[in-house]
Amino acid sequence: MAGRGRRSRRRKSDRKNEAEAAIRNLSDALDDSLGERIEIADSAARQILAIGKKHGVRPASQIKRKICRSCKKSLSPGFNSRVRISSKKLIMTCLECGRVTRQGPDFGGSDNE
User: Is pLDDT of 5 > 70?
Assistant: First the structure.
């Protein structure tokens, strides 16, 4: 019985590593297809959210910013989303569902300085 627990943990970490790799691949597909192939970008966005929910793996903040959590579609500025900067806050509005997301003074990135 004790052996099963150890194997289970190892498999869980393997699944988590595979999920992280899948999210990285889907993130590349999302970046490549934004603006030109919107169906592929929307499909990649839905799959990123589904994998993250199932395996507890979060995508990078740059990728999270490109996905609407409400309608689960990719956000392409100027095409289906509006981006504004107001009072040191980044305000993104999804033009599909109307969801508004606000990000603080550093816009979620660590390369401002």
Answer: no
Longest dimension (CA), the chain: 59
Q: With H, G, I as helix, E, B as strand and everything else as coil, classify residue 55.
A: helix
**Looking up tokens 């993130």, which residue turns up?**
27
* 70, 84 Cβ separation under 8 angstroms: no
Which residue reads 């959210």 in tokens? Answer: 49
Rounded to two decimals, the pTM is 0.78
Residue 84 lies in a domain: yes
Distance (Å, whole) CA 51 – CA 59:
10
Kindly report the backbone phi and psi dihedral angles of residue 107, in degrees, each rounded to the nearest multiple of 5, phi listed first.
60, 20
For residue 74, tell me if it sits in a domain: yes
Q: What tokens does 56 get?
A: 């507890």
Domain with 25, as residue range(s), is 2-103
Number of domains in the chain: 1
